[in-house]
Amino acid sequence: VTTARLETFSDGVFAIAATLLILNVNVTGAPLGKALVHGWPSYVAYAVSFLTIGIMWVNHHGVFSQIDKVDRTFLMINVVFLMLVAFVPFPTKLVAEHIHRPGLEAAALTYGFTLTLTALAYNALWFYAARGGRLLRADADPKTVTGISRSILPGPLIYLTATLFAFGWPTLSIVLFAVIAVFYMAESALFGRRVVNATDTVRH
Amino acid sequence: VTTARLETFSDGVFAIAATLLILNVNVTGAPLGKALVHGWPSYVAYAVSFLTIGIMWVNHHGVFSQIDKVDRTFLMINVVFLMLVAFVPFPTKLVAEHIHRPGLEAAALTYGFTLTLTALAYNALWFYAARGGRLLRADADPKTVTGISRSILPGPLIYLTATLFAFGWPTLSIVLFAVIAVFYMAESALFGRRVVNATDTVRH
Amino acid sequence: VTTARLETFSDGVFAIAATLLILNVNVTGAPLGKALVHGWPSYVAYAVSFLTIGIMWVNHHGVFSQIDKVDRTFLMINVVFLMLVAFVPFPTKLVAEHIHRPGLEAAALTYGFTLTLTALAYNALWFYAARGGRLLRADADPKTVTGISRSILPGPLIYLTATLFAFGWPTLSIVLFAVIAVFYMAESALFGRRVVNATDTVRH
Amino acid sequence: VTTARLETFSDGVFAIAATLLILNVNVTGAPLGKALVHGWPSYVAYAVSFLTIGIMWVNHHGVFSQIDKVDRTFLMINVVFLMLVAFVPFPTKLVAEHIHRPGLEAAALTYGFTLTLTALAYNALWFYAARGGRLLRADADPKTVTGISRSILPGPLIYLTATLFAFGWPTLSIVLFAVIAVFYMAESALFGRRVVNATDTVRH
Q: Can you say how many angstroms the Cα of residue A108 is from the centroid of all Cα atoms in its chain?
């Protein structure tokens, strides 16, 4: 139960950040049928950000399956990480509102840098816990720990690369964010079927 | 405790999606008394969507009473399912705003297709877990499992049927969504009184 | 653990309904200092409704300390109860916006009937669980059960009485809602100091 | 499990209050790139308030690690404390909207008094629980208890001092609120690394 309350608070922020995205889904104009068709960017932005936050939650879950204690430094890194997760609805709205309009470059950059910083904070969270086994469970499986490290490490670089395309090709940049989310979901769905039990839930 | 955190996150999304519905309840115009009477569609839409999300939560609860492990595929299906649940406030607002106005057909279709997709995702969630007993508890009762399968399977067809009436009879379609919610509540209240204990909560 | 997930979902709705009240706190006009002073009704309305929802949460907590099983009927009554709790931010906004303005009567009536219905649903929830000991713990203390029944029963009548004053004296009615909340808080703080342990938390 | 549900409800309010802050982050004007640069006060206000609420959550967590029972008075103090925490998004918006504009003094005062009152309520919560060991665990470590008392006691004075600077130097006052949050985070991160186990999580 050491980390129980930390997980409740974190799950709350993940759940709220994801659910608040719906407040950005809006259509204007008439007739409604036509407005709904023209509103597609806001649905796509909703889906991509919801799935991205959902994936972050799954990964956060994976980190916590390997640790069984926390210290105040870890708590503070987690607060900063959650602050970035909870920021995602803002750049999501910017992107949805600027598809096919001037300003898409700035919107995509804001979205991309938010995700890049979030991935960096997630690396800080994991490597602070894993460095020298600081916060790991005594019985943490070294292969699982290495697997998590390997899957987390490239995150900031992947998001930074997709972000940098926004200088000049903002639409490509946004497509890449969607592709990253869908690819990650599909990869997990296809290769993650090994049934796991209570103590190693969501190991890779 | 295997599925505990998944349930916390899911409960958070259900609770927030249901509670955010209140942000769509609004009245305008003066005097206030008259405006409040004219605002009835927004209260009815609030109630129908809140009850519908509440029923989904009860059913989700029922699924989790039968499983005791998860894998990454299941986590991802659950994220997609929650993404659809959290989308419900948007078409709810559309329906409430277009009662007795042009655009009701498009609003009812958006509402109906959202619920149909949600019911489909719920089927995917359950049958992925239940197929071959993949994620079921070792001691899951076959009759209960079959009972859940039977109650889940017709959901998409029922919602699709109510949705298709919206082509031409959008008001009828909306009345059907309300009837489905109220019928389900009443059926549970009348026939679901068998007292259940900790391990088989909300079995049928 | 029987009722754990039901409590998580309910706590989520209580917490969100209470926290969303802040979205109704707004001031307009300039200079800001003067606007903040004129904005007092929205702070008072925020406080009264937050405390009222907080008290409902404390009481809901008290009910769950006496039961250890649920059935589908109880789940459905709880969903209806939460639907009314989550509705509170709407009439709160109406009251805050109509202090010293026409329409206060309609606003106070909406607020009062919402609280009266909530108190009724809370009675239904408790007496459904307690009737014949249906969902009570085997070791529930009869004196505690009787104490809860006695404290819950007058709720609808108290709120209805305060509501009916709104026909003609809406300001008095609103003052009464505040007095009820403050009185209940103070009574608990002064007379509820008996230290309780894990199994009988928040007994009277 | 005594305090479990109280913590769930509290964590919900903390998580929602922090996450709702994003609704105050907004930019207007064109081109978007320039508007995003001019929007810096809303990002800084978001970060400072998110971190401040996160720190309050960490501290609240610390209090609950030392107690294992509650009474109704404690529940009521906690509701009042959460009412103040959930109020933070309102003055945060005021400050963000009035940087470099008339009204900053009133905004900074509102922000500061909210935090001062929150710190006072937090003192009431802790000292009500700790006075004479009323709600403390039988095995609470006296040094830890004294440590928490010492770290909580100066909170209201620190916030009140920063608040009073707003009479005449509102910008300085706001900078002080940010410095308090960052200092507290850094102090914890640098000096809080001692690994703690399940029963004394987040002790100092």
A: 16
Q: Would the CB atoms of C54 and D16 count as touching at under 8 Å?
A: no
- Least Cα distance to C6 among D2, B54, D79, D16 occurs for B54
CA distance D203 to D197: 10
> Considering only CA atoms, which of A5, A66, A65 is closest in space to residue D65?
A5
Report the C-alpha gap between A88 and A114 in whole angstroms.
Answer: 7
d(CA A14, CA C78): 25
Are the C-beta atoms of B74 and B125 separated by less than 8 Å?
Answer: yes
Measured in whole angstroms, the distance separating CA A78 from the mean position of its chain's CA atoms is 14
Beta bridge partners of B136: B67
Per-residue b or e along C151-175, where b marks 16 or more CB atoms closer than 10 Å to that residue's CB: ebeebbeebbebbebbeeebeebbe
Q: How far apart are CA A13 and CA A22, in angstroms?
A: 15
Question: Taking a C-beta distance cutoff of 8 angstroms, is the pair A93, D32 a contact?
Answer: no
The phi-psi region of residue C178 (left if phi > 0; otherwise alpha if psi is between -120 and 50; otherwise beta) is alpha
Residue with tokens 């009185």: C183
ipTM comes to 0.89
Contact list in B for residue C106 (CB cut-off 8 A) is 31-33, 36
Using DSSP's 3-state secondary structure scheme, residue B177 falls into helix
Residue A29 identity = G
Residues C55/D56, Cβ–Cβ less than 8 Å: no
Beta-bridge mates of residue C136: C67
B13 contacts in chain A (CB < 8 Å): 15, 18-19
D62-75 in b/e form (b: 16+ CB < 10 A) is bbbbbbbbbbbbbb
Report how far apart the first and last C-alpha atoms of chain D are (Å, whole number).
Answer: 23
Angle at which helices B104-130 and B40-64 cross, to 10°: 10
How many other β-carbons are positioned within 10 Å of the β-carbon of residue C43? 15
> Measured between alpha carbons, how far is A23 from B183 in angstroms, rounded to an integer?
30
Chain A residues with CB inside 8 Å of B69's CB?
Answer: 195-198, 201
Place of tokens 């970035």: A84
| CB proximity D106 to C under 8 Å | yes
Cβ-contact A118, A80 below 8 angstroms: no
Which residue type does B59 have? N
**pLDDT tens for chain C, residues 1 to 204:** 467 778 888 999 999 999 999 999 999 888 999 999 999 999 999 999 999 999 999 888 888 889 988 888 899 999 999 999 999 999 999 999 999 899 999 999 999 999 999 999 999 999 999 999 999 999 888 988 998 898 889 999 999 999 999 999 999 999 999 999 998 888 776 765 444 433 344 433
Q: How far apart, in whole angstroms, are the C-alpha atoms of residue C116 and residue C173?
A: 13
With a CB cutoff of 8 Å and minimum separation 6, the contacts of D180 are D52, D158, D159, D162
Question: Model confidence over B120-148: pLDDT tens digits?
Answer: 999 999 999 999 999 999 988 898 899 88
Q: Which chains touch B (3 or more CB pairs under 8 A)?
A: A, C
Could you read off the pLDDT tens digit of each residue along chain A, which spans 204 residues? 467 778 888 999 999 999 999 999 999 888 999 999 999 999 999 999 999 999 999 888 888 889 988 888 899 899 999 999 999 999 999 999 999 899 999 999 999 999 999 999 999 999 999 999 999 999 888 988 998 898 889 999 999 999 999 999 999 999 999 999 998 888 776 665 444 433 344 433
| H-run or E-run covering B160 | helix B155-164
Point out the residue among C32, C51, C195 whose CB comes nearest to the CB of D134.
Answer: C195
- What is the value of pTM for the model shown? 0.90
Would you say B165 and B173 are in contact if contact means Cβ atoms under 8 Å apart?
Answer: yes
DSSP C84-112: HHTTTHHHHHHHHHHTTSTTHHHHHHHHH
- Contact by Cβ (8 Å): B94, A25: no
